[in-house]
Prior knowledge:
Helix content is about 35%, strand content about 25%. It folds into two domains: about 5-230, P-loop containing nucleotide triphosphate hydrolases (Rossmann fold); about 240-279, no CATH class. By secondary structure, it is of the alpha/beta class. It has helices at about 45-50, 75-80, 95-105, 110-125, 140-155, 170-185, 200, 230-235, 240-250, 265-275, and strands spanning about 5-15, 20-30, 35, 60-65, 65-70, 80-85, 160-165, 190-195, 205-210, 215-220. The strands form two sheets. Strands 6-7-8-3-9-10 form a six-stranded mixed β-sheet, sandwiched between helices. A four-stranded antiparallel β-sheet has the order 2-1-4-5, with helices on one face. The mean pLDDT is about 90.
Amino acid sequence: MGTLIEFVDVSYTYPNGNEALRNVSLAINRGESVAIMGENGAGKTTMAKLMLGLLRPTTGKVLIDGIDTRKTTTARIARKIGYIFQNPLYQLFSDTVEKEVGLGPRASGMDEKAVSERVGSTLREMGLDHLRGMPPLSLSEGERKRVAIASVLSMDPLALIIDEPTLGQDEIERLRLMQLLRGQLEKGKSVVIISHDVDFVYEVAERFVIMKGGRVLGDLRKSELLDNREMLAKANLVMPQLLEIAEMLKRNGMLRNNPVRDLRELAEAIITSVRGGVM
């Protein structure tokens, strides 16, 4: 796999004196799905800005694909790390969807034929081809979010960082985003989700970095969540509902295994149990 993003004893203090991160060490591998979770003020967004090179560590260092962010440019980092803001309005600038998605590839020096091909394939992948001539700001919130993601994916980054992906999204858009992120993982991309929406991230991420007050409380695999209720509570997070349901079924002899990874796996486990006479 290999490490793609690494924090080495990183602290960051804002100019107003707010110490947002304290001695954070963390490594994210290529092709890995990681959720960075915690309440507001936990340091999640500061971590994202450090990954992008928008901020430089006060102490320690951040490495992107082995490159120290203090010794390179944000433009160079942007070719490797794509970031989607909480509010897509912060990153939409063009008068059509097609132009918006083509901004990055065009700025990177691609010829027009390559730009056209990249834009076309990205729009089709995102289900936006029919909106290519529309102004991004005229679209629904879910569509604007997908345009923002498409504008990042068109650069073919190694990792996708998405900040509060479900904010303002209805259930259909939540499912669409979930499928999109899984698709990126299947392509070997790293996916970093910054969120407090435990139910959404549980079905995408395999690893959960729990933050509180600028520190890492824990770095857990999916199978370790049930044994760390106190840690989640300390970070003002709740256990994913899917995990709670599966655990309840197991306690009542209605399910053999827990944890389950997603809703489909829960349904399959229940069907298997019924056929095997467990229920």
